[in-house]
Specification:
The protein contains 6 helices and 10 strands. By secondary structure, it is α+β, with helices and mostly antiparallel strands.
């Protein structure tokens, strides 16, 4: 950090008013950040009938303690648990920063899914749903991102972009070169490489440009909402490895709008540090039952 010799004050009220009385105004930036809160679980004297939940909780701890980024996602089935044991996991896991909705096409062989990261980063509650939105499978997954996101997001996606230059609307100006840039980058991208990001917020564009980009890239099955600092909405497109990533401030004003070429945007993924911290926290939580 730079060491300034004089104090620097910025923000509302820091600048003198103009001669006409007008004052400098600033966009409201994200001001709230989710923090970890210890889950409320039954006291040791209240655990009668929770043998299965405690057994699976210790299994979860074992998985977390050994998990390394790059390992296969580990799954714990909750389908056989009764209501009381499932409620234990409702309290233990809580709700973390990231939620995911997986929408499938009609008549798809894959079920939809509702996914919520727990208060333990890297631990996900994944509930698969049928066409009637009934839960057909209830699981816990340990990984940087749930398997369904990693493996099925672009299962039926287009491999690249076909640009029909003869039928570009007259009101579209800057979208075609952006699509050409993505088209060039897609064959070059390899999983694990740095993502290629196009910052739409810094580029001139019209509403028609955005609509055209959306139409050409298509709409994918995944919507991810990360609430770590402000809100980040991540939408998969129907073009392989292309995501639309939008950041909003606490007033729900769009402050950063990007297109990203990556397997999954990093903002949605748990890191090794997150997972190690989660193992330590779960060990601390379950210590009361030792």
């Amino acid at each position: 950090m730079k060491d300034h010799s004089i104090p620097i004050v910025v923000g509302p009220g820091s600048q003198p008013a103009d001669s006409d009385g007008a004052e400098m105004d600033f966009m409201q930036m994200p001001s709230g950040m989710m923090t970890y809160t210890q889950p409320i679980i039954p006291e040791p004297e209240e655990i009668t009938g929770l043998d299965q939940a405690l057994l699976l909780s210790n299994k979860l701890l074992g998985i977390l303690s050994k998990f390394k980024v790059g390992d296969e996602t580990q799954v714990i089935e909750l389908n056989g648990l009764d209501k009381k044991n499932k409620e234990f996991f409702d309290h233990l896991l809580g709700e973390g920063e990231v939620s995911v909705q997986f929408n499938t096409e009609p008549n798809s062989k894959n079920p939809g899914a509702l996914i919520q990261e727990s208060v333990l980063a890297g631990v996900w509650r994944v509930q698969y749903i049928n066409e009637d939105e009934k839960i057909i499978s209830d699981t816990i997954e340990v990984g940087i991102i749930p398997d369904i996101v990693d493996k099925l997001t672009f299962e039926t996606a287009a491999e690249n972009i076909e640009i029909d230059e003869k039928n570009i609307p007259e009101s579209v100006y800057n979208a075609p070169p952006l699509l050409a840039e993505i088209k060039d980058k897609l064959p070059e991208y390899k999983v694990g490489e740095e993502p290629h990001v196009i910052n739409l917020s810094l580029l001139p564009h019209t509403e028609s440009d955005l609509i055209y980009l959306s139409e050409q890239l298509g709409i994918g099955p995944i919507i991810i909402l990360s609430r770590g600092y402000g809100n980040c909405r991540i939408s998969s497109t129907a073009t392989r490895n292309v995501w639309w990533v939008q950041y909003f401030n606490s007033q729900e004003t769009l402050i950063l709008n990007t297109l990203e070429v990556s397997k999954v945007p990093e903002v949605a993924c748990a890191s090794q540090e997150d997972i190690d911290d989660s193992a330590d926290r779960l060990l601390e939580i379950l210590a009361i039952y030792k």
